[in-house]
Amino acid sequence: MLRIGVTGLMASGKSSVARRFAGHGAALVDGDALGWEVLRGPGIREAVTAAFGPAVLGADGEIDRPALGRVVFRDSGAMARLDAIVQGPLLAEVRRALDAATAPVAVLDAALLTRWGLEPALDGVVEVTAPVETRVRRLVASKGFPEAEARARVEGQRLPPVRGARRHWRIENDGDPAALARRADAVWEEIRDLAQV
């Protein structure tokens, strides 16, 4: 089985590319969904609350992701504290999900892939990029954030560059969905040939 990571900054279009690959038959491992499961896991809520205070909890007592996001995307130290709490359990879940995949190609959709240093564990990495203004507009439209908050999140996110990948593809997303689909399909053809499917 070929393991391919799809990564990119917030609102770059990485999940659109990963879903496109899934539409071609890849098994999709959603890093964001797994992250949400981990945040709801035993002991994690308590650790997050201890680190960031009760303001990150919703009325139901669960972690309020938008509230947590407003804290960590504006403060690199806060993001590092959150990573220290969730990274170990999350990586265990990612590896479990990849191991459970049965399709010839498994695709890991994960913004934090390079922060986790997962490149050497994968057969290739697809990096999706988009201009800042495009990402801000997309975040406002998709999440309903005020522009100032969307811009703060976009400009506050920093990820290490892709390093140590066996293969590295880059897809530029200029905001045209048809063009993004064509670029993703071209990369998929190369991935499919590598997987011999």
Task: Sketch the major β-sheet.
Answer: 5 strands, parallel
**For the terminal residues, how far apart are their CA atoms?**
10 Å
The CATH first-level class comes to Alpha Beta
What's the β-strand tally? 5
Strand order of the largest sheet: 2-3-1-4-5
Poorly predicted runs? none
- Rg (C-alpha, Å): 17 Å
Q: List the quaternary state of the chains.
A: single chain
Query: What share of the residues lie within helices?
Result: 40-55%
How many helices? The count is: 9
Number of discrete domains: 1
Classify the fold: give the CATH topology.
Rossmann fold
Order of helices and strands: EHEHHHHEHEHHEH
CATH superfamily: P-loop containing nucleotide triphosphate hydrolases
Range of strand content: 5-15%
**Looking at the structure, what is the overall shape?**
globular
Structural class by SSE content = alpha/beta
What's the mean pLDDT score?
93
CATH architecture: 3-Layer(aba) Sandwich
Task: Walk me through the structure.
There is one protein chain. The protein has 197 residues and is an alpha/beta fold. The chain has one domain: 3-Layer(aba) Sandwich (Rossmann fold), CATH 3.40.50. 54% of the residues lie in helices and 13% in strands. The protein has helices spanning 14-23, 31-39, 44-52, 65-72, 76-100, 113-116, 132-143, 147-156, 177-195, and strands at 2-7, 27-30, 105-109, 124-129, 168-172. Strands 2-3-1-4-5 form a five-stranded parallel β-sheet, sandwiched between helices. The longest helix has 25 residues, at 76-100. The mean pLDDT is 93.
